[in-house]
Amino acid sequence: MKQTDDLTIRISSAATRSVYDSVCTITASLVAQKAADAFVNDRHREIHMFHADGRDPVQRMLNAVQPSSYGRPHRHSKPPKSETLLLLKGSLGFISFSEDGTARDSAFILLGSQTGNIGIDCRAGVWHTFFALEPDTVVFEIKAGPFDAATDKDPASWAPPENTVEGLRYLADIEDRFRLHFQLAGRTWDCPRDRG
Fold first, then answer.
1. Residue 126 falls within a domain, yes or no?
2. Burial of 72 (0-12, 13-18, 19+ CB in 10 A)
3. How many domains does the chain have?
4. pTM, 2 dp
5. How far, in Å, CA of 95 to CA of 112, rounded?
6. Which residue range forms the structural domain that includes residue 67?
7. Looking at the domain assignment, is residue 5 inside a domain?
8. Where does residue 174 rank: exposed (0-12), middle (13-18), buried (19+ CB within 10 A)?
9. Closest CA to 69 of 49, 33, 40, 98
10. How far is CA 134 from CA 3, 154, 163, in A?
11. How do residues 79-112 score in pLDDT, each as one tens digit?
12. Which CATH number goes with the domain that contains 135?
């Protein structure tokens, strides 16, 4: 692991971590750096961790998300874990789903200055996803540990995988519906879409 400055090390192509003994300040420049990192990342998403490692019982991180970053709907159920998101910058769409993948408009939550909503707390086992509605959107995310990549998320079988054309189409369709529901301006998509 290469140290990139006094307090930050890069731990993967999509994540950095703060290294500190007792207290770490979360600065506007760190939030801006993570947004910039997300912009150049292939997934248009970057994490910055504050927990020491995956064994920590409380996982704490910045999650920077750019528009068009698709996170496959998922839940945290094995083991059950709640998840909290606090908006630091930008605007975020959050959707929860029924077991069969139905997303009702009542399950749409808009975080941002338009609503005054600044965070959500999602119970364990709830199917959900979130996406950036503005460039450089950053949330502070808190989830129970320890982290095990094999069991952290249950991906939804009814939603397409990430990093696919189908995934981008799915995001475009659900985000368009979300924007219409909240009367937000539409956006242009760079993916082929079926209209029929």
1. yes
2. middle
3. 1
4. 0.91
5. 14
6. 37-181
7. no
8. buried
9. 40
10. 30, 27, 20
11. 899 999 999 999 999 999 999 999 988 999 999 9
12. 2.60.120.10
